[in-house]
């Protein structure tokens, strides 16, 4: 037996859980699926966070047109995801996570897109190449390997619940949207009274799924793939943003006490705190963006997508 094993020491495994030695043989001690997903997606989360688009995001360099296109991408993504969830609502490895009344976003996104594009919105929008690849993957697994829907559903919905309510207020202020919430339906989970309690329920249901080790590892791989699809969409928007006329941003935004708040509520702070033990730098940057009206549009538009990336660290 190794010295580490004799002393009760273990090492983190790439896919989650812990690795230890027993009789000279390396053994993987599995953990909850939610923990495996958090550990297995950490690297790709950092990749997404350090992308050019996200860095520009943190500097407050965004256009309103990108906000609208972000909602279009979300509309097509959720339309595909919820179609396949409906198809597989009785599948034993997915049925416990079927919460259409509480979670489904397609109809709310349709209302938002209609608000931004008008009554003829369905003839004005189209799926982008990057979003189409994401949608194709969701349909493929829904029809051929439904258990992998768990990775996509968990990534999206838990992220939406983690930061949506704060973002709703930011978007409403930045875009001067009506007080009744028109244009912000995506952020509203009217049938969930406590996001924290619901996330606990969802993770518990997921951890109780009867899955073998190989399937759990495939779910981690699929979650990484979901992050990669989001990164592709970021890159696509980066390129599109280069074709837009340069916006003018204030060099030194004035302080606004209304957007100051508890640092622990900042999604960036929460993500980095859980991942590295504490850092308020990113949150401070995000709060600086919030003090700039143009930056508020940026944060409101894309934190919805990035919330999915941060969700793994909000466990």
Automatic annotation (TrEMBL):
The keyword Transferase belongs to this UniProt entry's keyword annotation: no
Gene Ontology molecular function: any one: metal ion binding
Membrane-crossing residue ranges in chain numbering: 297-314
Highest taxon of source: Eukaryota
EC numbers, comma separated: 1.14.14.18
Entry keyword set: Heme, Iron, Membrane, Metal-binding, Oxidoreductase, Repeat, Transmembrane, Transmembrane helix
SUPFAM superfamilies: Heme oxygenase-like
Any one of the GO BP annotations: response to oxidative stress
Family annotation (PANTHER family): HEME OXYGENASE (PTHR10720), HEME OXYGENASE 2 (PTHR10720:SF2)
Stated family: Belongs to the heme oxygenase family.
Name of the protein in its database record: heme oxygenase (biliverdin-producing)
Lineage of the species this protein comes from: Eukaryota, Metazoa, Chordata, Craniata, Vertebrata
